[in-house]
Write a structure and sequence with these properties.
The protein is an alpha+beta fold and 396 residues long. 36% of the residues lie in helices and 26% in strands. It contains 13 helices and 21 strands.
């Protein structure tokens, strides 16, 4: 296996593993789940700042709901389902029908719009065993699902807001090369040509208003609406489709969702689907390969390793670690009876960006010797080092 394959990187960094007893499933180890939650918390903060409210919807829903939405016809063969007496239930392959249920549970006014919901939705799809590939293709995954219910005159602003956010997010993760595809109506689809004409025109207009350059992918839209797909180009020259924003006039109709306009009339909302990362698992795989495991300081599961140079300074090493942890840094101590050179190599293999070495001189002066990935070193007072590293760890 290539050293820069995300599975090899994960093995070096002790992030996750997979095994035959759980095909297409992931066993997240402590460091891997720290990375997972760091990304999740970052996206959660971004969504909250964009006016989204987080919800949680069931993983298991009846076949009737999936038939109403059209997903049973489209994805039924790849859904995990079982019969409970006379009723069939299925694990959700996506969250959108459940979000419509939350919207439609009460009467909505035009004053409530745009209404924005977000969810880290746990999804399952019965992918063929031959298609499974590490985190790139799994049977259980989480999506950063989000849905906006709005009026037609909100579409341009909402799409522009998403496009701006998605580019900022990708830059924070170290991706600067992003291509956009405008995916139009597929051959097999729900909704009339009139509905599709209206949806495609609205999304195209919104993309132009947001100054988004795109190529057209004919026939690659979702079965319920056109979409803009965001493709990341990594340092190896590979393109990955991650983010998406989709305009949907079909599901609100199928579930009889509506709001009351200022004249008291029942009006169908526009439903905008979007995800910034898509599958969290797949994005982590792409991220690991993009950086070769050398994640930026803010993302690294272990940000600092404190290594004693001689056995007498092991106690001071733990004191240093405590001071750094108190500033919110993720710290481990390497107090093994081993050479510093070996500890440096092991920290590099584990993807830890900062090594703080402490010897007799550092202990007596209450300082640390900071060594970075590029080999640069600097001796700093402990308090100053804690301030500097904390500031660096909060920078994207």
């Amino acid at each position: 296996m290539d050293r820069n394959d995300h599975r090899a990187i994960a093995n070096r960094m002790e992030l996750f593993h997979q095994q035959d007893e759980g095909p297409g499933m992931v066993f997240w180890h402590p460091k891997g789940f720290t990375l997972y939650r760091t990304i999740e918390d970052y996206i959660r903060a971004r969504m909250r700042g964009a006016g989204f409210r987080e919800i949680r919807t069931p993983q298991l829903l009846s076949r009737e709901l999936w038939e109403t939405s059209g997903h049973w016809e489209k994805f039924g063969d790849s859904m995990f389902s079982f019969a409970d007496g006379e009723r069939v239930h299925a694990l959700k392959p996506m969250s959108c029908p459940a979000h419509v249920q939350v919207f439609a549970k009460r009467v909505r006014s035009f004053r409530d719009l745009p209404l924005r919901f977000a969810e880290f939705g746990a999804c399952h799809r019965n992918e063929p065993s031959g298609a499974l590939h590490g985190l790139m293709r799994t049977r259980a995954f989480e999506q950063d699902d989000a849905h906006i219910f709005c009026a037609f005159d909100h579409v341009e602003v909402e799409v522009a807001r998403f496009c701006a956010m998605v580019h900022e997010v990708y830059r924070d993760f170290g991706f600067d090369d992003v291509a956009v595809a405008f995916s139009t109506r597929p051959t097999v689809r729900a909704g009339s040509d009139e509905v599709w004409d209206r949806a495609e025109a609205a999304l195209e207009s919104a993309a132009r208003a947001a100054d988004i350059a795109y190529r057209v992918d004919p026939g690659e839209g979702a079965f319920y609406g056109p979409k803009l797909d965001f493709h990341l180009n990594d340092r190896h020259g590979r393109a990955w489709q991650c983010g998406t924003v989709q305009l949907d006039l079909v599901l609100p109709e199928r579930f009889d969702a509506h709001y009351v306009d200022r004249d008291g009339r029942r009006v169908r909302p526009v439903m905008i689907h979007h995800a910034v990362l898509g599958s969290m698992e797949r994005f982590i795989a792409i991220l690991l390969e993009q950086h070769g495991g050398d994640l930026p300081l803010w993302l690294a599961p272990d940000q600092v390793v404190v290594a004693n140079i001689v056995s007498e300074t092991a106690g001071y090493a733990h004191e240093v670690a405590g001071k750094l942890e108190a500033r919110g840094l993720r710290v481990v101590v390497d107090d093994r009876f081993d050479r510093l050179a070996k500890k440096i190599v092991d920290a590099r293999e584990a993807g830890i960006p900062i090594l703080a070495a402490v010897g007799k001189r550092e202990a007596s002066e209450r300082s640390v010797s900071i060594r970075r990935r590029d080999g640069t070193q600097k001796v700093m007072a402990l308090a100053a080092a804690a301030n500097v590293l904390k500031a660096e760890a909060t920078r994207r």
